[in-house]
Amino acid sequence: MTAKVLLITTVPWPSAGRLAGAFAATGCVVDALLPADHPASRSRYFERVYAYRPLGGVSSFLDAAEQSHSDAVLALDDRATALLLQARERAPVHIAALIGRSLGCTENYAQLMSRNGFIEAARQADIRTPLTCSIENENDLEGAIRQIGFPAVLKADGTWGGDGVAVVHDRNEALLAWRRLSKPPSLLRSLARALRRSDAHFLRSALDAQAPAVSMQQFIAGRPATTSFACWQGKLLAANHLETLAAQEANGPASVLRRLESEEMEQAAARLAAHFGLSGLHGLDYVRDGQGRAHLIEINPRSPQTSYLSFGAGHDLVSALAARVDGHARPPRPRVAGDVVALFPQEWMRDPASPYLTSAFHDVPWDDPVLIRAWMESQQARPALEKWRAFMASAQQGASFAAQS
User: Fold this and answer.
1) Which of 298, 282, 299, 284 is closest to 243 using CA atoms?
2) Does some domain include residue 327?
3) Same structural domain for residues 200 and 278?
4) Are strands 235-247 and 254-260 parallel, antiparallel or unpaired?
């Protein structure tokens, strides 16, 4: 029987539509649990799309899981992973088993999703990591400053995409950042964010505000890098290692990446998959210093944005995982052209005039034109459209001036 995969996301990231196409290319049937306004909901590769309810996330997942009869479920953002862990506590036996089979050893996720706890586990696995300290109060902060020095990075648990991260250069900056990151969001701020971003999750934050755990980490100068990997019951199946050439914003997600070979990053993925007993798709974030050494800074306990890319045998995460889900071996999907990839729509949204859009492999999903149109019409694309129109107007004026000259 062909495997059926249920994708779950609570945020409007592009990976949902791209993963749907990737799994469909392996012969899998794909369902999704998506927010109502998610552009990927129009993708041709979903057999069925279920409505995700921000104020009833667990129940919306349980409803979808009952109807989908999927063989595996994949979380595409950190909140979705937390949702699955919460749902497992309330789920009937067969759905709890589905979650456990899909995530691996769920009892290890508490440490996995703690920034400080994860780094400690990585150190125990003999993986190079920056010095990291848990900060519970101002006395802890003073001790961490003495150990780590400046510059340093303060990070709040439960955040992603560059949010909840502050690079600090002196004691005053560190103290102000810690006070900001360690406080639960105020009722007024949560309501304002809910209205501004049209995201009901912030309403839940307003009603159930909790202070996040905060850690301080040694700052490593260098270039960001990432590993996307597939694993099953603690065994590494396939991995891709990439360094960031361009990002949408400081400390934010990459928009252009270059594939690289790294034995130490490969070994780190294998050790961590085994240590935590992981299944599914996951990501690791690094900084590579001037000597090319990779310093592991955190894990993404969910499918990263690059997991749908195929770089050939041993580097096709989707085909490798699908083979374990249903027990049927699959050849790798066709390799992307080249080792430098400009992600769509991320790089176009960052800079509509980016030279990477023509010099790199621009992974536009030409096989899913409805998905392209949905992204171009989405609210997230509006700033990029304005920049693109301004760029085109400037180019036309320049061409007209040149013709007249």
Assistant:
1) 284
2) yes
3) no
4) antiparallel
Collect all residues with Cβ–Cβ distance below 8 Å to 213 and sequence separation of at least 6. 114, 115, 116, 134, 136, 156, 157
Amino acid found at 11: V
pLDDT digits (tens, 9 = 90+) for 218-233: 999 999 999 999 999 9
Which residue positions in the chain have pLDDT lower than 70?
1, 161-162, 185-209, 379-405
Contact (CB, 8 A) for 257 and 93: no
Residue that is written with structure tokens 């794909």 in the block: 30
Q: Is the pTM of this model over 0.85?
A: yes
Phi-psi category of residue 69: left, alpha or beta, with phi > 0 → left and psi -120 to 50 → alpha: left
Amino acid at 23: F
In a domain, 138, yes or no: yes
From the list 333, 299, 129, the residue with the least C-alpha distance to 231 is 299
Beta carbons of 343 and 305 less than 8 angstroms apart: yes
Residue 273: inside a domain: yes
The region, left, alpha or beta by phi > 0 then psi within -120 to 50, assigned to residue 6 is beta
Q: Which of 175, 391, 215, 364 is nearest to 298 (CA)?
A: 215
